[in-house]
Amino acid sequence: MNTSHVNTALPPHIYASINLIVTASSIYIMSLLGLHEDYFFLPVIALAVGYALFYFIRQCRNQHKVPSLNPYTAFHIDNTFNIKQLFRRAIVRYVVWLMVLYSGYQFYQFAPLYNDAAHHSTHLLFESFLYWYLWLGIPYFALTLTLKSSRCEDFYDPAIRFIHIFKQIIFRSLRGDSSRSIFRVLHKKYNRKVFLNLFMRAYFVPVMVEQITPTITSTLTLLYREIGNHELLGMIFLISMALWLLDILNAAVAYCLESRWLENRSRSIDLTVGGWLVGMPELLRSTQRYYRLPICFCAVYRQQSNR
Asked: Residue 105: what pLDDT?
């Protein structure tokens, strides 16, 4: 077996199958129980759990078939952990991510662009996530470090990168180094990538999160109308909206939930100012299209229905 492909993505048909099952199940359950605002993110969690389960099954199969997999690059179950050391590592990550998540929550609460009612879903997501994180964060990290152990992921772990960066900056500042020396740690690409990755996710999380409720609502509305009205145009709109929902849920998993269980750590990002300046206008235009698309679908459908 070629161990260089151990941490590659799942086959496309696995992603598509899990996404179809979760999306169809979510639509069916919500059609029976109604769309509750407080639980709008559950389809994303269910999709992430499905992906994580298949990744873990593949990991166990690979570890069983090839016991000599490189522990530096491959995910594996750590059978040699020390309880005291494990919880120390888990607590460190828990504290760092608690500060990051709380800072993100405060940013969305007070930033003028995000502190209005239009971004209520983003605020609700962070409130719920922080609440559950306070209780489940340490057990999550302890399980992850045991069942998804990887020395490579330990090195590139954003929490560890944060600690390393701030330790270096504080140490060099107290030592009286020049400003160039103090911030030399940021010259390393994998350190700068941590901050750019957070910036990218901070931008895209609301884009994806705010799409979930209106897209599900539009899909359910079209579904209710087409149950007894089998018009071709209506069916096309329904299928199109369902496909859009598939894409939104998958994108929400990708941007909101970076985890070893999903094996979706960002491995490359444009670190040049020019690249970001060139891409930003198109990024903003794409975002506007994201927000308008479900509304446009329903508006066009209503116009066609009223003719």
From this structure: 92
Q: Which long-range contacts (CB under 8 A, 24 or more apart) does 26-34 make?
A: 26/216, 26/249, 27/216, 27/219, 27/220, 27/223, 27/242, 27/245, 30/216, 30/220, 31/220, 31/223, 31/224
What predicted TM-score, i.e. pTM, was given to this entire model? 0.84
pLDDT of 297 higher than 70: no
Measured in degrees and rounded to the nearest 5, phi and psi for residue 199 equal -60, -45
Looking at the structure of the chain, the number of domains it has is: 1
Q: What is the average per-residue pLDDT within 185-189?
A: 81
Residue 280's pLDDT band (cuts 50, 70, 90):
low
**Residue 196 belongs to what domain range?**
3-306
DSSP string, 68-102: T--TTTS-B--SS--HHHHHHHHHHHHHHHHHHHH
Distance CA 197, CA 255 (A): 10
Nearest to 226 by CA among 29, 27, 43: 27
* Residue 299: per-residue pLDDT: 47
Burial class (CB in 10 A: 0-12, 13-18, 19+), 250: buried
Q: What is the pLDDT of residue 4?
A: 42
What six digits make up the tokens of 301? 């459908």
Long-range pairs for 294-299 at CB < 8 Å and ≥24 separation?
294/211, 294/214, 294/215, 294/218, 294/241, 294/244, 295/214, 295/218, 297/218, 297/237, 297/240, 297/241, 297/244, 298/218, 298/221, 298/222
What region does 62 belong to: left with phi over 0, alpha with psi -120 to 50, or beta? Answer: alpha
Q: How many residues does the chain have?
A: 307
What average pLDDT does this structure show over 164-188? 86
